[in-house]
Amino acid sequence: MLQTAPVTGLKLIGSAAPGFYSDLFDRLLPVTRSITGPGLRESLDIFGEYMPLRRDRVVSGTAVFDWTVPPEWALTRAILTGPDGEVIADSDRSNLQVVNYAMPVDVDLALEDLQPHLHSIPDQPDLIPYVTAYYRDSWGFCLTHTARQALKPGRYRAVIQSRKYDGGVDFADCHLPGDLDREIMLSSYLCHPSLANNELSGPLVLLGLFDRISRWKRRRFSYRFVLAPETIGSLCYLFRHGDQLRANLAAGLVLTCLGGPADILSYKTSRRGTSTLDALVARLGADEGFAVRPFTPISGSDERQYCSPGFNLPMGQMGRTLYGDYPGYHTSGDDKAFMGIDPLVDAVDRIEALLRRHEYAGVFVNQAPYGEAQLGRRGLYPSVNSPTTWANSSDRVVDSRTVLNRILTVLSECDGEQRMLDIAARLDCSLDELMPVVDRLEAEGLLKAAGR
User: Which of 287, 69, 77, 44 is nearest to 172 (CA)?
Assistant: First the structure.
């Protein structure tokens, strides 16, 4: 049995303290991130202060399944000035004000010629939209619709100091070993600049979970933590590690949109819908603060790549206030005040508790399957058989035989096929109530986790 110890040599993480997440959020928010480039690397560097990240990249031009890794993009500054020299948009003021991946320009043009390069949201006139152009040459500026409507006729100067060059897609992971080679993967993305719930909530919760899980005294499963830009980053990760994941992955979660006002956590099942984690969240349900959504490829995050037919990994997704379901999605309205910090700490608490339960929910194997195990010599069965002991599970514990019944049933059912989650249901008890039985039987060498 592997005994674990906290990872050392890194900055301390206050994974129960809102102030830690708040301060780290403030460092990360202004970084000009994209799917490639210096802002992405800077963000990975910051997380690397707290996690032992292994860095990797796939270079520009590489064919990754049906995709081609794009050239890298770096922005120095983008500024749009009006006829009287007033600053209309400035990336130094908000990096949402330039189209992400915009090509370099330095042009002077009339308002009517500028308009096709401007982006705003008429029905949200006070918010700046987040606009990208990753895979084509384009440029533009993003404004509030109020500011756009106020533009006067005349000549405007648009300057975007950016460049595209051969580079690559950077990503990173780290690993916490457990008793088993079978893994649980937690994945989130880094690529959106100046967005809170739809960008930083996931990586911050992932970091908190890394800290918590690294402190567990014991892990049955091994745990993998992945940070990569959305879509192209997870594709590159699969390009590098897909075969390993197919062989070893027991379950996983894509972490996204874990802030905001929603009270419950929303779980999107894996495409398979059959993993132990899928079953566990469904069993816990609304009583434990979980809503369950079926898998769909139509919308979502990186679970669409992990669950694509060629891989079909058992990856679910965990969110709270979901993408597309709140007015500030992909706009400047997705800020720290909307996301909140307390919801992130709550998500760390609840997902950690879920993963602890998952350690017990799967398949175990009876290590003494030929006949009944001799429980008496292990203090698990009365050594004196009389009317006064028939109701007890041992000579020392009086519990109306409940624990003994659970022990006998668990050993009978653990044939390498039955989930402990289902055994608990047949015993009409919760998984939590069965967990001490599992611990004791493991300690006595009578039970071993199968990793599924």
Answer: 44
Q: Does residue 38 lie in a domain region?
A: yes
Q: 0.90 exceeded by the pTM?
A: yes
The 10 Å Cβ neighbour count of residue 356 is: 16
Quote the domain boundaries for residue 196: 18-69+169-359
Q: Is residue 413 part of a domain?
A: yes
Q: Please give the pLDDT value at position 275.
A: 96
> Is there a domain that residue 111 lies in?
yes
The confidence score (pLDDT) of residue 5 equals 53
Query: Of 335, 359, 383, which closes a domain?
Result: 359
Assess whether 314 and 210 both reside in one domain. yes
pLDDT of residue 382: 61
Q: Report d(CA 77, CA 83) in Å as an integer.
A: 20
126-164 pLDDT, tens per residue? 999 999 999 999 999 999 999 999 999 999 999 999 999
Q: Which residues of 158-194 are buried (b: 16+ CB within 10 A; e: fewer)?
A: bebebebeebbbbbbbbebebbbebbbbbbbbbbbbb
Whether residue 134 sits in one domain with residue 57: no
Q: Would 260 be classed as within a structural domain? A: yes
Question: Could you say which of 339, 359, 379 is where a domain stops?
Answer: 359
What's the confidence (pLDDT) of residue 4?
Answer: 56
> Among 196, 64, 191, 61, which residue's Cα sits nearest to residue 132?
191
Could you report the per-residue pLDDT of 345-397, keeping only the tens digit for each? 999 999 999 999 999 999 999 999 999 998 888 888 764 343 444 445 544 44
Residues 212 and 292 in one domain: yes
